[in-house]
Specification:
The complex is a heterodimer of chains A (672) and B (724). By secondary structure, chain A is α+β, with helices and mostly antiparallel strands. The chains are: A alpha+beta (672), B alpha+beta (724). Chains A and B meet through strand 14, helix 18, helix 20 and helix 23 of A and strand 14, helix 17 and helix 19 of B.
Chain lengths: 672, 724
């Protein structure tokens, strides 16, 4: 491991995320038993006008992290053997930064990591005016940290931070009094700084950038009165009810309406009007929560949307049903519902708001199509589509390429089929049909389209089931699905791997999934990656220069997959909005962030490497151009030259000496 | 849906859809052939028509989905067959309907002798090998039609061969004769005996056949040949569709006489001298095809028979996992094999034998163990190779298993330790303990060198070995070994538990006393190919109007695989001098091999023809191809010029003409390393020319296609002053 590793901020973020998430495993001098200390209702301290509030609580991680499937997986002897060298390197790496960490935070690395078991939060309460050091708008931010019994440690931290800030010379600290309590005040010296106050009270550290807001918090803290606080806000309460739990690891509340106002000055002109036209202005608040729920992580999302066109569009009374007949080999599926005719009106309305001209063109095209086809697309096609729409990816047999399908609910299938075929024929798309399992599969023969090599000869296929239209990428997928239905093969909706997860969500609310369902076969995906990736890694991947990863020691696939289960997602409408939740061994957002981080790291490394190579090429080119210049005798000599150049000079001098000597020898020989 | 009748007529040959046929068999052809017949092949279509429709392949072709897919092809066949019908009627006076009667026919082809006729004229530069062949055709139900057709067939053949059929009389029978000027005495003689057409390529052969027909004495006939009888007993059953017999020793005798010595020695090295004769039989057995091969060896064959292995049974199928797709196991005495190999080398390649002995001695000196006694002597008799697809893997776990003799494990471990110490500066032997078993693997990082070790590539391979049960197992990567060990520990099903394997083994080797055993999961292989190939076919392969098949209608995988099962083969020693092998499969082992080989050969031939098509004289792409050659020459000349300049940089002067091209590969005084590892020739296979002029200029050049200075077009010279 070298320090270069940390030079990439992206990688550092990824590593920080990994270290943070698994800190309870890394920090193992004494296993944390942490009893939950008395936590404060932070929302009851914050002002009602709080725009966004993010809370990260390490406590539940310490208490319940070992229940997680991922923790059990990491605890497998095989996995430990594989990861031990990596863990050791990470610890060494962290130790290497001990002096810097201690200098700036006053804490050891272990103490810093230990802080992660506490609850911290950041709240953004809009922009406020400040006169210090110059008059301008500054963000009104409140940071809190609840630190349990480690008061001394936090004092050291604050002392060190104060020292560090002073050392940078950017401002001064002084004692102050806010709402009758002694606080420390930071006054910036530079124009880009911000005033700040901090207070340490009852194992709570509060830091704010606006004195009045700070005063309000302190007043509420002292009195225990939550009047005009965020906790009293109806929106907050609605969001809290849906996504925040006693032991949430992460919660986020955003007052979208206030957020829009706060960011409006920076938004492109007309964008707010667009949001309004799209009906998104009716989204008043958003909430996110992440809990440990048994062996899995539960992500909860709530969109506060009491009414409006978007809700009308998406809130149908139809509950998803495709899981009841999709094959059990389905690796991914998602299903929701939408009012298709309303969707058309919605899109056209949006188009009109965006660009009148485009809207008119589309309207004209629809009218022309009506004339050309001889039927009304809206009445005879769109009105027969929906409300359920979904997709699936399934891996039949030993296929590597999944069967991919889009599913749309239909009414009056045979009539609709006729209309669709007529529409496709009018576009001169060569159509074919075949009979399979008592149904007709239609497909467009892309192989007969005159696109030449510019377009792959794909053959998208479709088949009408009783209440559904299934569109697949190729006819074989449609056949596989029909075979499955014909032989009444096991459906994903009957598979315990799926039903147990859904039942778990429905324990909390029986309506879970009534507005949408999603499923990812994580064990299947991981098994596929391991079964194929590990032999490749063990045979072709060179040892890493940065991490002591020994691919030969990679754990068995079963060792990993035995702890895993699928990811299920379920949406439902509440009186106030749309509630969605995901239960999975990895968390919904976690893998996204981690994957994005790793990809971004890889990308930056590639760019760095390309730059280094380009620079090396330029250097070589420059060097090669220097030589003839020197030969002509215009060189200034060895001084100031690069080492390589001097070597070349030496070599040429040697060559010259040899030549002279040879001439002398030849002359002597001639004389003789 | 209409299924074309003519396609049915074609498929009858494959699937026996035309109903029941009667078995012929009045004439026992081997009893009219001489005892020293070299090759005898017999095809009896009766079993095909009787049992063909029971075959798995026939059932697949009978699936509605498959019929739907093949329907357009059938229509094309219909029209082609209608054309064929016309041609047949005009040429031979029979049509396809009459040809259907051939379902009860029997055809034999026998090679009696290969006589070498010396070149008689100056134009014949090589001796001619003239085959003496006997062909019999038992018409069965088709006889009346063919009697009608004979005259026209004679005209056709005579027309093609450039002669006229004449009457002849041999042994008192009327025989028709067509002389063909291919070799002395070569021609066509044919006669009809009852409903059997007998055709020979020499008068003597016809006379022999007719004489034996007359005497009905089996003495001195192939049927009376003890080796043939022994082979026939093993390969022929009631209903054998195809049987073949070859007197390998005699065939090799003729071929060896014509072969260069080196080729003959190569054949010897591969043990061909040990073959006396070989027999092959193919018959239908329920849904599958059974191939039987009987190999008769010469008395002093020297092959390790393993007869002394007694009751030793193959049991690696109890170790390898149930998801094994390919499995081959056998019993072999490794020491005996080593001795036999050395003996063969001593006879044909004494120098190689000496090198091998010297290598073994070096091992003894450097590593302190005897290759034969200490290593081969500790292994066997069982060995096996397997390929298994665990879980969702696409890459198979590939492994080799060698049985370790009782108490021999410490000895092998000692050898491994010795080798580890010896090679540690190049190859590291690393190890871990997995579920109680020590796994070791080779790490080639040091061998690859610091720079190469950092790159992707096969130098990162980690061949792994471990002792599992009583076997020494080698796999391509550690994970494969872990999968094997974990499977055994978790008691997951093994190959022996797989229903398909169990059913096949109980069918062809109920005693479990094989000397070798192999199994291929055809169902899995076809499933994998279809599951992955069909989406590719349906998405990326354009429709070709000239091919009537619609890839969109390709049958589903299950509709094909539900009729399939694995291929299993077993071999056993039959006494000290013969090996009997038997294979059972839905496709026929030899048939599959022939089809696959045919496809490969056809592909190669096509590619060669395509390549030839771009050569001058074949038209088409010649100009482009020639231009590419000239481009290549220009590039190589530019590269050579760079090295000439480099020489000048190092040595202070341009290379002298006499130094060309030696300096390129030998280096120069101040540049002792080679400038090039290999001196290229120009695209026409000639050396590049170097010219040095008094004014200090030089040229590297090629004389173009004609190899002569000057010329135009493709013959024009290309030199380092030319522009590409």
């Amino acid at each position: 491991m070298n320090a270069r590793l940390l030079s990439s901020p992206l990688l550092f973020l990824v590593l920080a995320g990994v270290v943070g998430a698994s800190s309870y495993l890394l920090y193992d001098p004494e296993p944390p038993i942490g009893q939950p200390f008395e936590v404060k209702d932070l929302a009851a301290l914050l002002p009602e006008e709080t725009v966004a509030h993010l809370v990260i609580d390490g406590g539940p991680g310490v208490r319940h992290g070992s229940d997680l499937a991922v923790a059990q997986l990491l605890d497998e002897p095989e996995v430990r053997t594989f990861l031990d060298p990596v863990t050791a390197v990470m610890k060494t790496m962290l130790k290497r930064f001990e002096p810097q960490v201690r200098q700036y935070s006053g804490l050891s690395v272990e103490e810093t990591i230990a802080l992660l078991k506490y609850r911290c939060s950041i709240a953004f309460c809009g922009m406020v005016s400040s006169d210090v050091p110059v008059q301008r708008e500054v963000p009104n931010v409140i940071l809190t940290l609840e630190f349990g019994k480690d008061l001394e440690m936090v004092r050291r931290l604050i002392f060190a931070l104060e020292k560090a800030v002073l050392a940078w010379g950017n401002g001064t600290f002084a004692d102050d009094v806010v709402a009758g309590l002694s606080v420390r005040r930071y006054t910036p010296q530079t124009t880009d700084g911000m005033e700040a106050w901090y207070l340490l009270k009852d194992h709570l550290l509060v830091l704010g950038t606006h004195k009045a807001t700070m005063a309000g918090m302190i007043t509420r803290l002292k009195s225990g009165n939550s009047d005009q606080s965020l906790a009293e806000s109806a929106r907050y309460q609605a969001v809290k009810k849906q996504v925040m739990r006693e032991g949430s690891l992460v919660t986020l509340y955003a007052d979208v309406e206030r957020l829009k106002k706060a960011i409006e000055p920076w938004m492109p002109e007309g964008s707010m009007a667009m949001l309004t036209m799209a009906g998104l202005d009716r989204i008043n608040a958003l909430g996110y929560g992440l809990d440990i729920d048994g062996p899995g992580l539960r992500d909860r999302v709530f969109i506060y949307l009491p009414d409006g066109p978007v809700r009308e569009l998406l809130e149908t009374k139809h509950a998803p049903t495709i899981h009841q007949w999709l094959p059990a080999s389905t690796g991914f599926f998602g299903s929701t519902s939408i009012d298709v005719p309303k969707a058309k009106e919605y899109v056209l309305g949006l188009l009109k708001a965006m660009d009148e001209e485009t809207h008119a063109t589309v309207e004209n095209a629809i009218e022309e199509a009506k004339t050309m086809l001889g039927f009304d697309i809206e009445k005879e096609v769109l009105a027969r589509l929906g409300p359920e729409v979904g997709y699936y990816l399934s891996w039949p047999g030993r296929s590597l390429i999944p069967d991919v399908g889009v599913i749309i609910g239909v009414k009056e299938g045979p009539k609709l089929a006729g209309r669709i075929e007529r529409a496709l024929e009018s576009l001169d798309i060569p159509l074919r049909t075949l009979e399979h399992a008592g149904r007709t599969i239609g497909y467009a023969d892309g192989g007969l389209l005159p696109f030449g090599e510019d377009f792959p000869p794909i053959r998208p296929a479709w088949v009408f089931l009783d209440d559904y239209l299934v569109i697949t990428l190729w006819p074989q997928s449609a056949k596989n699905l029909l075979d499955h239905l014909d032989r009444k093969g096991p459906a994903i909706g009957d598979d315990p791997r799926f039903t147990e997860l859904l039942a778990h969500l429905r324990k909390e609310n029986a309506a879970a999934g009534s507005a949408g369902l999603g499923w990812v076969d994580i064990p299947g995906l991981v098994a596929f990656l391991c079964d194929n990736g590990v032999p490749f890694a063990q045979s072709f991947v060179p040892p890493s220069e940065e991490m002591p990863i020994d691919w030969a020691m990679f754990p068995m696939t079963d060792t990993i997959t035995q702890h895993l289960f699928g990811m299920i997602g379920a949406n439902r409408w509440t009186d106030d909005g749309l509630y969605g939740e995901y239960w999975s061994p990895t968390g919904y957002l976690g893998p996204y962030l981690l994957t994005s981080g790793i990809l971004a790291y890889g990308w930056t490394r590639t760019i760095e490497s390309d730059r280094a190579e380009a620079s090396m090429r330029e250097r070589r080119a420059a060097e090669s151009e220097v030589i003839p210049f020197e030969i002509e005798g215009t060189s200034t000599g060895g001084k100031g030259k690069k080492k390589d150049d001097r070597k070349k000079d030496d070599r040429k001098k040697d060559d010259q000496k040899k030549d002279d000597q040879k001439k002398k020898d030849d002359q002597k020989g001639g004389k003789k | 849906m209409r299924f074309p009748t003519s396609l049915s007529a074609v498929l009858v040959v494959v699937s026996g859809l035309c109903g029941q046929g009667a078995s012929a068999g009045k004439l026992v052809v081997p009893s009219v052939l001489p005892a020293d017949t070299m090759v005898h092949i017999e095809i009896d279509l009766g079993p095909l028509t009787r049992d063909g429709n029971k075959l798995a392949i026939a059932k697949i072709l009978d699936e509605p989905e498959v019929k739907q897919f093949l329907e357009p092809l059938g229509m094309v066949f219909d029209s082609k067959l209608t054309e064929l019908e016309k041609v047949l009627r005009e040429a031979a006076g029979v049509g396809l309907e009459e040809l259907k009667a051939l379902k009860a026919s029997r055809l034999t082809l026998s090679l009696l002798n290969l006589s070498v006729q010396e070149a008689t004229t100056s134009q014949d530069s090589e001796d001619a090998v003239v085959p003496e062949v006997v062909l019999t055709f038992e018409f069965g139900l088709a006889l009346p039609h063919f009697r009608r057709a004979m005259d026209r067939l004679e005209d056709m053949i005579a027309g093609a061969a450039g002669g006229v059929f004449q009457d002849d009389s041999i042994a008192g029978r009327k025989v028709r004769h067509l002389p063909i000027p291919f070799g002395k005495g070569f021609g066509i003689w044919h006669t009809l005996h009852d409903d059997v057409l007998i055709v020979t390529t020499s008068r003597a052969a016809m006379a022999g056949v007719l004489a034996r027909l007359e005497t009905r004495d089996k003495k001195d006939t192939l049927a009376g040949n003890a080796t043939y009888r022994e082979i026939e007993k093993h390969i022929v059953r009631d209903g054998t569709l195809l049987r073949a017999y070859g007197d390998v020793k005699r065939i090799l005798g003729v071929l060896f006489a014509q072969m260069p010595e080196a080729t003959r020695d190569a054949f010897s090295l591969w043990g061909f001298n040990a073959y006396q004769a070989i027999g092959y039989g193919l018959d239908f057995d329920g849904v599958g095809i059974r191939d039987r091969i009987y190999t008769r060896l010469v008395d002093d064959h020297g092959w390790p028979t393993g007869r002394h292995l007694g009751e030793t049974r193959i049991r690696t199928h109890e170790i390898v996992p149930a998801e094994t797709g390919v499995y081959a196991a056998g019993l072999l005495d490794f020491e005996q094999m080593y001795d036999a190999l050395l003996k063969t080398l001593d006879n044909g390649y004494p120098r190689l034998a000496e090198e091998m002995r010297s290598g073994a001695a070096q091992v003894d000196i450097n590593l302190g163990f005897n290759l034969r006694d200490d290593l081969l002597g500790t292994l066997g008799p069982e060995y096996c190779v397997f390929m298994a697809w665990p879980g969702k893997a696409v890459l198979p776990d590939i492994g080799l298993m060698l049985q370790v003799r009782e108490n021999a494990r410490p000895k092998i471990e000692g050898i491994i330790d010795t080798v580890r110490d010896e090679v540690q500066d190049k190859i590291e032997i690393r190890e871990t303990v997995f579920r109680g078993t020590k796994i070791q693997w080779l790490d080639f990082t040091r061998l690859a060198g610091a720079d190469r070790a950092k790159t992707f590539g096969p130098h990162n391979l980690k061949p792994t070995f471990a002792f599992v049960d009583e076997y020494f197992v080698v796999t391509l990567w550690p994970q494969a070994m872990k999968n094997l060990i974990a499977g055994l520990e978790n008691k997951t099903p093994r190959l022996k538990d797989r229903p398909d394997f169990v059913r096949l083994r109980s069918k062809i080797s109920p005693q479990g006393d094989e000397a070798s055993l192999f199994y291929v999961d055809i169902e899995g292989a076809v499933g994998f190919v279809m599951d992955n190939g069909v989406p590719f076919l349906q998405s990326l392969v354009p429709s070709d109007p000239s091919v009537p098949l619609d890839v969109g209608a390709f049958p589903t995988t299950d509709c094909v695989t539900k009729h399939l099962f694995g291929m299993m083969g077993v071999s056993r020693w039959s006494g000290e001098h013969a090996v009997y092998s038997e294979m059972y499969s839905p496709t026929g082992a030899v048939t599959s091999y022939v089809v696959v080989s045919g496809v490969i050969v056809a592909t190669l031939v096509m590619s060669v023809l395509q390549e030839a098509a771009v050569e001058p004289g074949f038209g088409g792409q010649a100009t482009t191809f020639e231009a590419q050659k000239r481009d290549l020459a220009a590039t190589q000349i530019a590269m050579l010029s760079v090295h000439v300049n480099a020489f000048q940089d190092w040595e202070g002067s341009l290379p002298a003409t006499k130094q060309w091209p030696k300096f390129l590969t030998d280096g120069s005084p101040n540049h002792p390393d080679a400038y090039l590892t290999r001196m290229p020739t120009d695209p026409w296979g000639r050396a590049y020319v170097y010219r040095l002029f008094p004014n200090g200029r030089f040229l590297v050049l090629s004389y173009g296609a004609d190899g002569e200075p000057g010329g135009e077009g493709e013959n024009a010279d290309i030199d380092s002053s030319s522009k590409k």
